[in-house]
Amino acid sequence: MIIVMGVPGAGKTTVLQGLKENVRVINYGTLMFDIAKERYGVSNRDEIRKLSVEKQRTVQKEVAETLSHEKGMVVLDTHCSVKTPKGYLPGLPFDLLAKLDVDALVLVTAKPEDIFRRRENDPTRIRKETLEELKEHDAINKALLAVYAAHRGCPAKIIYNMEGESEKASAELQKIIRD
Ligand code: ATP
Ligand code: AMP
Ligand code: MG
Fold it and tell me: Any idea what DSSP says for residue 50?
């Protein structure tokens, strides 16, 4: 499994949609949303991170349990950390990370100003952070990326999804999948 992470709006889903080879992509947030809308009446995926930390952890754990059965080449679209009202919640706490069959970890990022603008221009999602908050979030993610890699002993790659060049980022990711 290759785990792709990054701040909201960095372009994870876009980069994964640009993969040429037929590869199975699973979106962690979609699996969480399916549970959270049934159980807690959440009406859009950007509301999940506003639930209590306890509820988020419960759903997060259930999804990890489902994913623990996934072996081989799967690409997971998820988050290094989730910004909750109580602080950054690790996207992959060690007990959950240990259940996953991880080959490589990838952080998708870009210039903070570009990510900020992408969020503003994307009416389909509600992603609210100031530029300074976004920078802090990206820094936390980079720290967590290294920690997750040390935990699993697997490589950690940072892919820059530059403005207007998501195909290049997809090609870079494709290389990691192929090797
Ligand atoms: P989330 O974590 O909230 O799901 P994400 O990381 O999956 O976010 P996307 O939904 O893929 O982000 O992208 C956010 C917005 O940025 C979309 O409108 C997308 O079209 C745009 N975008 C993605 N990559 C680029 C790029 N390289 N250049 C310009 N716009 C981009
Ligand atoms: P996404 O569309 O990738 O933003 O996913 C929707 C939402 O699901 C995210 O904004 C988070 O609230 C939640 N989510 C996704 N992955 C994780 C994770 N690993 N841990 C906790 N919450 C997650
Ligand atoms: Mg996405």
Answer: G
Residue 52 CB: number of other CB atoms within 10 A? 12
The gap between the terminal CA atoms of the chain, to the nearest Å, is: 13
Torsion of CA 46, 149, 20, 110, to 10 degrees: 60
Report phi then psi at 78, rounded to 5. -150, -165
pLDDT of residue 176: 95
pLDDT per position as a tens digit, 57-69:
999 999 999 999 9
Going along the chain from its start, the domains and CATH numbers come out as: 2-28+72-178 (3.40.50.300)
What pLDDT digit, counting tens, does each position of 60-109 carry?
999 999 999 998 899 999 999 999 999 999 999 999 999 999 999 999 99
> What are the structure tokens assigned to 85, written together?
């009202």
Q: Is the CB of 169 under 6 A from ligand 2?
A: no
Q: Which two tokens stand for residue 19?
A: 């993969």
Ligand nearest to the CA of 111: 1
Whether the per-residue pLDDT at 148 is higher than 90: the answer is: yes
Residues, the chain:
179
How many angstroms is it from 13 CA to the middle of ligand 1? 7
